[in-house]
UniProtKB/TrEMBL annotation:
Its EC number is 4.1.1.20. Homodimer. It catalyses: meso-2,6-diaminopimelate + H(+) = L-lysine + CO2. This is Diaminopimelate decarboxylase. Specifically catalyzes the decarboxylation of meso-diaminopimelate (meso-DAP) to L-lysine. It comes from the Bacteria. It comes from Pirellulimonas nuda. Residues 329-359 are annotated as: Disordered. The gene is lysA_1. Residues 27-404 form the Orn/DAP/Arg decarboxylase 2 C-terminal domain. GO terms for biological process: lysine biosynthetic process via diaminopimelate. The lineage of its organism: Bacteria, Pseudomonadati, Planctomycetota, Planctomycetia, Pirellulales. PANTHER family: DIAMINOPIMELATE DECARBOXYLASE, GROUP IV DECARBOXYLASE.
Amino acid sequence: MPSPLVQTQIAGHSIPELAAQYSTPLYVYDAQTIVQRIAELKRFDVIRFAQKACSNIAVLDLMRRHGVLVDAVSSGEVARAVAAGFKLGPGEPAQVVYTADIFDRESLDLVINQGVPVNCGSPDMLDQYGARSAELGKAPLGVTLRVNPGFGHGHSQKTNTGGEQSKHGIWHTDIADCKQRAGRHGLSITGLHMHIGSGTDLEHLGQVCGALEKTALEIGPSIHSISAGGGISTPYREGDVRADLSGYFELWDAARRRLAEAFGHAVSLEIEPGRYLAAESGWLISEVRAVKQQGNNLFYLVDAGFNNLARPILYGAYHPMTICPGEGGEASGEGRASTGEPSAPRLSNHTDGATHGHPTQKVVVGGPLCESGDIFTQDEGGFVNQRELPEARVGDFLVIGCAGAYGAVMGSNYNSKPLAAEVLIEEGKAHLVRERQTSDDLLRGEKLVSY
Ligand code: LLP
């Protein structure tokens, strides 16, 4: 069965109506999908959402209300956690953990003054945390270590966070040194964490478990928590299957039990997903603004670009796409009321393979930015690909799926484009959870030189 390439609703809401009310480009999140994903991970003691994947405070608040905790990689993410209702400070488990490979000066002082527990990704972080705590006259909390086990994996080399090519984590042979450093600062190493990459398979992720157990034994009974990190892939393409996590939990649970046995006390088991919780909950709605034939390629040019969704240009990432007829028409040309816009050129290679009787054609989907790489249908080498999509005209909507993780958060103001609005649909109601930026927002903080 071909997947439906024509889509008219998101979580029961009409796409043209959403677009009319909030304009495009528009991110829409379905709370129900997030809640479902959370439920699938409930066997872990702590689900810590890697908020870098989707840090809108309404999404974070939704996670919080469903028992999920968060990490933060910057002082900005700490502020987001607070705005979403998370409490700062130590705890068993702490609601917010700062996890990074460096401290900038602002975050170093923030975590010490606010008592935010730290997951150190470099030996320098340990030293800076210990030394600055002493300078500020604050008793340091116990720290956890993010260890690079010497191997990694990911959907792209750019998202592989383990091994010697990766800047992440404390190198696995530096554990004894870190124990000494921690000791010099009166710091206890209370937990261990590994994250080898994003969008990887359970076989590679499973290898982390053995490496982490070995490292935990090397550190000893000061360890009270272990974290499996994130990285679980989600289905993006038709035919992709969602990972079966039951065996994965069993693997980690068994390691945790062995460690608890060895240490003589309970060891808590965390998981730290980003994509798994957020990716499938989000769509990016764009409007088709031009349809043009250039040699062998028929382009749909939409009003969203890599300023809104950077994953295709960065990683050649594949996102599912659908067409939604604009107001007053069908996606297919026949029988469609005129929008008053120029009609799209038609190719002769219609395959009629799509559902709902809409003819399809091979197209390249691009955005509005003045850069040739602003193409949503491309592979990792940057080669433009054609995608089979229903016929579309100016005024129809192109909807990009699986955009909830690393979508809006990686948006930029390139070409002085405003960040898109975001809507969260919860319990049947659509809530505007981020206003589209205005021209004033874009200019805020800039100043002319005064002569
Ligand atoms: N924990 C740590 C320490 C991380 O660095 C990350 C992701 C995660 C957890 C969550 O990983 P996830 O479960 O989402 O795979 N922009 C890229 C992904 C970069 C991920 C960075 N770190 C993308 O769009 O694929």
